[in-house]
Amino acid sequence: MLALTFAISTVLVFCIELVVRGSLAPTLLFFQQPFRPGWTTVALFALLLIFLDALLGRAHHALLLVAPLVLLLAFIGHQKSLYLGDPLYPADILYARQIFELLPLLASDRPVAAAAIALGALAGVALLVAAWNYWCRSMPALSLRGRLGRLALTLPLLVFFGSIMDYATFSWARDRLQIIPMMWDQKENYNSNGFAIAFALNVPMAKVAAPSGYSAEAISAITGPEAAAPVVPSDAPDIIVIMNESFWDPTLLPGITITPDPIVNVRALQSGHIFSPEFGGMTANVEFEALTGFSNAFLPYGSIPYQQYVRGPIPSLASFLRSEGYDTRAFHPFAGWFWNRTPVYKAFGFEHFMSQENLPPLATRGPLASDAALVEEIIREADTTRDPLFFFAVTLQNHGPYAPNRYDDPTHTVDGDVSSKARDSILSYAEGAADGDRALGRLIDWARKRNRHTIVAMFGDHLPPLGPVYVETGFMESNVAKRRAPLPEMSVQHETPLVVWSNRTGPAKTGSVSPAFLPLHLLETAGISHPYYTGFLGELRGHYRVVDRNLLVGADDETTPDWSREKAIDPAIRDFRLLQYDMIFGRQHAAESFFPEMLNGPAAM
Predict the structure, then answer these.
(1) CA distances from 412 to 257, 408, 409 (A)
(2) Which pLDDT does position 604 carry in this prediction?
(3) pLDDT confidence of residue 421
(4) Which phi and psi angles does 123 have, rounded to 5°?
(5) Burial 142-176 (b: 16+ CB within 10 A, else e)
(6) Could you give the angle at which helices 283-292 and 518-526 cross, rounded to 10 degrees?
């Protein structure tokens, strides 16, 4: 019986790895060496199946539960890797509702495949139910003695396996089993340890450990700005920021000509670039940096701070400006629960969140609310607001996928030596980008006519998930961007256009920066000073313009790859990490010196 369970476990683990890796050769390689984690995974699944059989009361009954679940996770992991370039993490379970909500849009891109998957899923569920009923009728029940024996054998060993999955602590047994946590390189982590063990190693990453040396004394030792109190001009400027979904310059695709220029306004006003920490998705992580001035680089790989870590008031541009008498509003023409935005925006200090639930009906272009309609609503709200305002909007129109013929009335043409499907996908994307560009032009024209000092900013959160288009055109070697590469390659695959514009001084010059530096450039353009957003970040910007989990880029373009693995970390980055941990997870010792609004502003209520 034990030998049969081990054989079943071997086949199951082989199928899991085959699904995740997508081909036979790397799957066979994973099993070639007898002491690789592949065989440890087989033993782990055998123990799990025996343990669950004891609970269910019949031999091999657990296979009907375990196999469909893990194979489904493996399939989802393979799809995520294809579209976003990252493996599946435990935290992605929090993202499930978003995926289900976007299923109609995803299905419109591949209707035949979507129909086949739906039919296959229904058939699979029916087959599973039939098999379950057959098993219950045909297989004899295990004796009480047999069940207790199985539990006595497997439970201690499963507890032992669980105890060695904490990557942050050394484990002699884990080392002997050649399970090497590679949390700094998740692709290699999953490749070397296999899907199941790498997934398990990422479970503890939901908890963020305090940085070495964190204490009240360490926070007080961080040099604060000379002027501790924020300073806002008497004619406090209005600030409007638009994070445009997947906004990027499609004319960068090699060998592709798009007529007319789809981003003519951005090209004329461009301040620099946002060096996005993401690719093709995970919008909320870019948004987190842009609003807080903090960095994903100090959070676990694959984490989603909006869904995992925002549990109470956290300093942001909104909380600061609200404390200075600003009317703070967020706009997004989709459901408020998406990315957990409703409670997050409240924690960030926004007074109002205008979402799908309380926005007036917005005109659509293609399947989603148009950028033009959203901008008109922003203008309408601004025209009726007496107090200085801080508006932050996240657009929706140009969300992927970019199915051919997405728009009935395209205003552009695309030429290039690529397949017709690729050309049509580029056209669908370019139309959306052009609409975002025109919406910016409308907002700029409105702001130019205002007497009030007005700052307008727009940037793309990440490159669009164009998939095979990148390979066909030669823009990238694969469908997704690299996480580790020389700076020129990383810049091409992660930079999106950034506009920071004032109706008094015109475009500001920012260069290519991490989203965390956006508050610095916004407030500097507005003539506002703040101990953290212009003080600390201003000082840090003098050292680094990009703070990425895999790469630091200095103001002089000198790079430090894999900086987080070094024993000695630059004090400027160390202090950045300490301040972020203190204000999100710690005791907020830094509030008095760097975030005084958290002590006496609305966010403190």
Answers:
(1) 10, 12, 9
(2) 43
(3) 92
(4) -65, -40
(5) beeeebeebeeebeebeeebeebbebeeeeeebee
(6) 40
Q: How many angstroms separate the CA atoms of 134 and 128, rounded? A: 10
Q: Which of 585, 498, 577, 238 has the alpha carbon at shortest distance from 391?
A: 238
- What is the helix (H) or strand (E) element at residue 441, kind and residue range? helix 420-448
Closest C-alpha to 550, from 182, 159, 161: 182
Show the tokens assigned to 119. 């039919």
Angle at 317 (CA atoms; ends 311, 319), nearest 5 degrees: 55
Cβ pair 51, 57 in contact under 8 A: no
Are residues 396 and 332 in contact, defined by beta-carbon separation less than 8 angstroms?
Answer: yes
For residue 445, give both structure tokens: 């024209």
Contact 589, 578 (CB under 8 A): no
Instruction: Match 């007529």 to its residue by tokens.
Output: 259
- Cβ neighbors of 79 (< 8 A, separation 6 or more) are none
- The token pair that represents 299 in the structure block: 């959070």
Place of tokens 């975030």: 595
Report the C-alpha gap between 200 and 183 in whole angstroms: 12
3-state secondary structure of 498: strand
Is 39 in a helix, a strand, or coil?
helix
DSSP string, 322-379: HHTT-EEEEE-SS-TTGGGHHHHHHHHT-SEEE-TTTSPPPPEETTEE-HHHHHHHHH
574 vs 222: CA distance, rounded Å:
10
How many whole angstroms from its chain centre is CA 230? 31
Give the model's pLDDT for residue 160: 86
| Per-run averaged pLDDT (10 residues), the chain, 605 residues | 82 90 86 77 88 85 86 86 77 69 62 72 79 76 86 88 76 78 75 86 78 91 78 94 97 96 97 95 94 95 87 94 96 91 95 94 94 97 95 95 90 93 95 97 96 97 93 92 91 97 96 97 96 95 95 93 88 95 93 89 46
Q: What are phi and psi of 358, to 5 degrees?
A: -125, 0
Nearest to 436 by CA among 379, 507, 365: 365
Residue 273, strand partner residues: 497, 512
Q: Considering only CA atoms, which of 376, 364, 288, 298 is closest in space to residue 331?
A: 376
Q: Which long-range contacts (CB under 8 A, 24 or more apart) does 143-150 make?
A: 146/54, 147/54, 147/55, 147/57, 148/54, 150/50, 150/51, 150/53, 150/54
- Which uninterrupted H or E stretch holds 49? helix 37-56
Handedness of CA 424, 428, 431, 433 (dihedral sign): negative
Q: Between the CA of residue 157 and those of 59, 163, 169, 172, 288, what are the distances in Å?
A: 19, 10, 19, 15, 41
Question: In whole angstroms, what is the distance from residue 245 CA to residue 432 CA?
Answer: 9
Q: For residue 133, give the amino acid letter.
A: N
Q: Which of 152, 135, 155 is nearest to 144 (CA)?
A: 152
Handedness of CA 437, 444, 534, 353 (dihedral sign): negative
Cα–Cα distance between 530 and 316 in angstroms, integer? 12
| Rg value, the chain, Cα | 26
Tokens at residue 51, please? 């343990």
pLDDT score, position 603 = 45
